[in-house]
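Because discrete structure vocabularies remain unfamiliar, it helps to consider an illustrative case, giving the amino acid sequence and backbone structure tokens:
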Amino acid sequence: MKQIMITGDRSGSGKTSITLALAALLSKDHQVQTFKVGMDYIDPSYLSAVSLRPCRNLDSYTLSGDQIREIFQHGCRGADIALVEGVRGLYEGAEALTDTGSTASVAKILDIPVVLVVSAQSITRSAAALVQGFQAFDKDVNIAGVILNNVKGGSHKEKALTAIEHYCDIPVIGAVPRMEEMQLAMRHLGLVPYREGSGCGDFDARISTITKMIEQYVDLEQFQNLMTEIVPPPRQKTLFDVTVGRDVRIGVALDEAFNFYYADLFDVLHTAGAEYVPFSPVHDRLPDADGYIIGGGYPEFFVKELEANDPMREAISEISRNGSPIYAECGGLMYLTDRMTLKKGWQDTPKETSYEMCGVFSGETRMPAKRVVSYVEGTSSGESPLGAAAFRGHEFHYSDVLLSQKTRYAYQLSRGIGIHENLDGAVTNNTLGSYTHLHPVASLGMFRHYVGLCRKKR
């Protein structure tokens, strides 16, 4: 098996489109396992779609080195190429003076070669200085090659390519011109999730166009030559091994409104003895289950449909009152409030308009609000259905959740914003709703505690 990582010199370098296309091209003849550095949900949805294998997240702020290696090894089973997409610039992380949370830290943990995507717009020889700086900044990171993006004309390409290969002693394996067709659909928190657009001909055609362009401008054979071989470790018991039967049913909200899940969640549920039952708050009736998980997503784009499904909203409110365990993250939290209010101008809303939601938590969600993207760290009290624990996670949202002053909170944050003044994890009965997104491997004990509570309350 072989491995390689693609990352950028900065956000907006074009690494996502390039990685997506290379994953699609390699998947024609190989079993390609993709990974995404960071706590992002949306890029993995694209990588999963083109590789036909669930993309997995690797994040060195929330996960230990051993956990990252274990997720990597588990994901690679049955594959012959591991392709990792970085996050932001190679060295961007959680802090200024450490590489925790960065692409570079994951590259070193996995000992994986890196292809650096450089946005070469308006620079030629300076591109070599930029690459040389990246090489010198941390010599433990193996930058094996470069792909130039946003290249204009033949002389631009030749000057930048010649300078990099001369001064940096690594190959330039591609030079991609600046083209509007290379852009994927964006919105306030990043790309539009693949699940939303997968039935749209224009959407799928754009991905096909990007793939054809990268095939033309990047040397696929040279890219594969930069990969290094992975020596498989001895087969050992891992956290992903199933040792108990599945005696618990957990409903997982999964549709166009709610689809922000890490692939490892479903494996973790299985190892804890739970089977998951997908359901749609937009289209379905609530299935019979011992507990429910409502993940993040973009419910603000489906407020009319969510409001219209009265039986679903009423059923969720009832099971919460009855004490069935419910765990909701971000978009799920928004859905559990009394109402979602869209301000004038948001989504072309002519005037401020409110839509009824589930009413589990007394208060409202307001859109839009300040954009929040941050790591979080905190502790959970025993009042949480996920149990008492210390945790690290991530929050990214564009909304405000304004809850009653009587609301109880299970999370105290030492880093991050949460729902209200470093408080997060609103809790009532056995329902918890938070802005914090937890990685299921990093917070393995919390998810196992939740499954145990579902078993107990069954």
Observations:
- The mean pLDDT is 94.
- The longest helix spans residues 201-217.
- The radius of gyration is 23 Å.
